[in-house]
Automatic annotation (TrEMBL):
Taxonomy, superkingdom: Eukaryota
Cofactor: heme b
TM ranges: 18-40, 61-81, 93-116, 128-155, 167-188, 209-231
Chemical reaction(s) catalysed: Fe(3+)(out) + L-ascorbate(in) = monodehydro-L-ascorbate radical(in) + Fe(2+)(out) + H(+)
Gene3D superfamilies documented for this protein: 1.20.120.1770
Membrane topology: Multi-pass membrane protein
Compartments (UniProt record): Late endosome membrane; Lysosome membrane
This protein's name: Lysosomal membrane ascorbate-dependent ferrireductase CYB561A3
Function comment: Transmembrane reductase that uses ascorbate as an electron donor in the cytoplasm and transfers electrons across membranes to reduce iron cations Fe(3+) into Fe(2+) in the lumen of the late endosome and lysosome. Reduced iron can then be extruded from the late endosome and lysosome to the cytoplasm by divalent metal-specific transporters. It is therefore most probably involved in endosomal and lysosomal cellular iron homeostasis.
Summary of subunit composition and partner proteins: Homodimer.
Gene transcribed to yield this protein: Cyb561a3
Amino acid sequence: SLAHRCHHSSTAMLDVPFLPFCAFLGTLGFLCVAMVGTWCQHWRGGFSLDGSSRTFNWHPVLMVTGLVVLYGAAALVYRIPNTWSSPKLPWKVLHGSLALGAFVLTVLGLAAVFCFHNSQGTPNMYSLHSWMGLGTVLLFSCQWAAGFGAFLLPWAPAWLRALYKPIHVFFGSTILLLSVASCVSGINEKLFFSLKNGTMEYKLLPAEAVFANTLGLLILIFGVLVVAALARPSWKRPDSNSLASHQ
């Protein structure tokens, strides 16, 4: 029927191969990291560990790199088709290690902003961005610890793993979207704080504002594409029963 053919052609159009999609996503993630580094280096004075605004500049770079890009990579490990027919343990270790690396960068990013605030006498944890960001990091730490206990340690019973797995998957996507929201609100907050003198006002849209707004949009697109990949049924690793029958 016409409806069936239309449905078939629409699904065919959307049938993007996973590995080219991943290559595009990797390029987009690299671009996000390069742009946040360029923003802080070119417009915000570079990087140091002296407690000045140049110490703060580590915060956006580490958060975008860890909480968005590296975390997104960790989330997509099980979508790689090569992992489906091979033993699961090495991929579990890779997934957990990437997530741990993301967590370490995130904690260093938090340390940078607290160090900057304390050295400047600025209050901590008063903005919506800071509440959302810290909440995301706390949720991330619980997610990693629970995932490590349930899936990497050998004594977790099978029924517990089966019960926890959909929860782990749900919070994986949720944390990534919260990370994106935290980064975008942080970029906006930084621009409001920084661009307020004379001709450099944010509302006049100087080059820095255009650049940082674009960075925010790219981070948003990256997060949405990762969540879309995680939700796509044909890219999900088959469960062990269907995998055995498939082989």
